[in-house]
Amino acid sequence: MIFPSFKRATLFALPAAAAISQSTTQSASTESIPTKPMDQGPLVTSWSGATASVLVNGTLSTFTAQYTLPASIDYGANLLPNVEDPEAKVAQSVCPGYKASNVEHNQYGFTATLNLAGQACNVYGTDVDVLNLTVAYQSAHRLAVEITPAHITAENASWYILPSEQVYKPQQGVPDEATEDIDLQFVWSNDPTFNFAVLRKSTGDVLFSTEGTVLVFEDQFVEFVSELPENYNLYGLGERLHGIRLGDNLTATMFAADNGNPIDLNLYGTHPFYLDTRYYEKDPETSALTLLTGNASANASYISYSHGVYLRNAHGQEPILNAGNITWRTLGGNIDLYFFDGPNQAEVTKQYQNGAIGLPAMQQYWTFGYHQCRWGYKNWTMMQDVVDNFAKFGIPLETIWNDIDYMFQYRDFENDPNTFPYDQGEKFIDGLHANGQHYVTIVDSAIYIPNPDNATDAYSIYTDGHDMDVFMKNPDGTEYIGAVWPGFTVFPDWHAANATEWWTQSLKTWREKVQVDGIWIDMSEVSSFCVGSCGTGSLHLNPVHPPFHLPGEPGSIDYGYPEGFNVTNATEAAVASSMSAAQASSNLAEQGTSTTTSSPYLRTTPTAGVRNVDHPPYVINNQLGDLAVHAVAPNATHVDGVQEYDVHNLFGYEILNATYLALEQTIQGKRPFIIGRSTFAGAGQFAGHWGGDNYATWESMLFSIPQALDFSLFGIPMFGADTCGFSGNSDEELCNRWMQLSAFFTFYRNHNTLGDNSQEPYIWSSVIDASKKAMAIRYSLLPYMYTLFESAHKTGSTVLRAMAWEFPNDPTLVDANRQFMLGPSLLITPVLLPLVTSVNGVFPGSKDGVVWYDWYNQSAVTATPGANVTMDAPLGHINVHIRGGSVLPQQEAGLTTTECRNSPWSVIAALSASGTATGSLYIDDGESIIQNATLNVDFTAENSRLYASARGLWQEKNALANITVLGVQDAPRNVSLNGMALMSGVNYNATSKVLKVTGLQNATASGAWAKDWVLEW
Q1: Under which EC number(s) is this enzyme classified (predicted)?
Q2: N or C terminus of the chain: which is more exposed, having fewer CB within 10 Å?
């Protein structure tokens, strides 16, 4: 049984050391307890009666574990998604569209008025009579198309237009000749109603066209349709688990949801952006291009063009991918479209980030080390044991994390004084820092609200925020009170003027006691365990227990294991299966016989001029159904009157922004390190992302690859999955393979849930060996990874790359996501299936003469172009190949990044078929926001020479130790460094064609890059 997908549910339990007295069972009136809107019964179902007193910051506080919330408190209305509703109205059939008039040209483009072309259809809201159209060529590569209600007044202000102060809005560039060179052309027509198209001028290809469709623009429903070619190749439209290439039968709903990682459904973040790549067969005689709509031919030559489309709209929405078009629907807002001309993925991604959503934050060097986490590290002693075990087995450990275990009653910015006291924490963290290691904790998105009947239930984080008026409200102006881990909670209102100040001061005050090095933001969709303001009138019950089964409790023991476990561990699997069956039988007996009735589907009829934000007439295919389920309800109200309906998808973005600003002030001068769960376009400016609540299954491991590649497109290059799986019991084989795969992601963390088996890499001997082997590669390549990341930060380039993007003229790679590339130079081919000792993979570019070298034996691979190659992959081995033409800077692997940075340098030059190679290296202090000195090193190999030239003021003291050149076809007669013959340390392998030069420390004692050098052979 897989642990229920609701995140981190823990039984409210008082620490044994805290229990001073126990009271007898009490009775409590439930008259003030609200019932569900659909009258699903009382809020409270159980009473434990246990009380405890504990000394918190010198004050004796008493807490009572009172009530368990019923599961029904998180049930919503029975909604049938529009895409599955046979009675759903088809807007394209009944709506009149618009006519354009009053066209006025300007230096950027033109404006026009769009008037409703017939009788209003009001199909899922109230039609807008008059719209404004603005078309602007904003830069040499970006075209903007905006359609907005013409008259927004106080009476019709329900049309929420996303302000630039909240999410960056691309600005008009300075008009110059470059804008005239944009490879995009906008054309429009009023036949029969307003429609438009965006063309690529250089090829005449229609990139986007609404011809033959009507524009629908209502206060709660916007729809536009664009034609797509047959067998199109779209990427993006996240966040969801899906293959990297989006198929033509997908409803790509975007509504931030806290509910595990189901396949093909909306997850935690919202990224309304797609990349469209089209392949053309090139006629060898005429060079004419023909769009490829079927399978590629092995003998043909192809060229591709890519473009990007971004809809700057934060409402709940769902692009629907059909066989011949994309139908884009939103629950409000405006049409704020941006087109990027590419012409390849690399350029589209740069154009999208640089000028449209913002470039990703630069990370500190240490963040690329290995991170270990667990929901279940119960105290500082257990944390120290974990750190000691990594050292004992010689496994690198950079950072150890705490999940919500460290909190006092699961309250933000407050440690449990019994299990995680501040004085012991100071000693523990000081020890980490002295050893070059780091400490990161989780911070949740909801704030506990104290029980007003308990004078000792003090919580200054809430009272300070309340006094500063920084929490979301109900429509009547009272505080909106949901339920999360600590019980009834309030939620920060990031529209409030004082919210970031309150958040900053809360973090700063807490960090004076706990020297955290980074923050992990969770539950930021924003999540709530009940529908509506369920705590209103019931705060005397606080703290309350979450309304669902908890991991490790009787009746909710996790007996799930990965596929293949029944073969490798047959006896244990049989016992687990038997116990799982017994548990299921026991749970069924406890439930008894019950009669259930299904309520009819709720279908909302639009009312002219009135928005139904709780149950909008158009029902998106939200994985949780009702928009209020497991989330703050849509009618929650912000200080500026904006309803949560309009900005739900932005909470994660806003809390990351606030946390970034808070860390800037709290850990001054250093780059903030933040990992967040819910994201929106542009969140990469503040934070990285992890893949959320995945499972200890081979399927989850596989899907981590396309998920990582998606976030490369979305401008969030710092990405990793919960290695070995979050929910479910991992096993030796899965964890072995996964620890090696994740070693080549940018963010590398192992994390699992309370109640499941431990899965630290030292648990199994083979995983120890596999982890150390992969980590040795990763840590030696940290200079390469850091250089890639600096380029992403400066230019918007990608770090993790799909083969289709790196080899854009090979249409056979369009949906390849079982292999991936780390930068341009490394090809990773992981094992993604159980019980196998080999893996198949392709070597892209072989048709064009690209040479690939095996990382381990450093010899060139013999590969047939386009063919799957079977590679040995015994347990503990991951296939890594270096692309010919690459130069990779390295340092020695160590147990921490500090050790690595203080070690000698090496260089690997993997020659192309023509004997050339290039590469680069970026060095700075690894932590500061503003650098006093940096260094850039360029490498070039040609004509049997490898050159290194540096520029910058950073003084790198570590010497150069070794140079390895792959693909040296003939044994060199002489090898020299800067013209001086090397009399020792030179080795050439005639079989592998590898030249190794070692022992260069004396020749480079002043520093590897202190002066330019050339190696000649």
Answers
A1: 3.2.1.20
A2: N
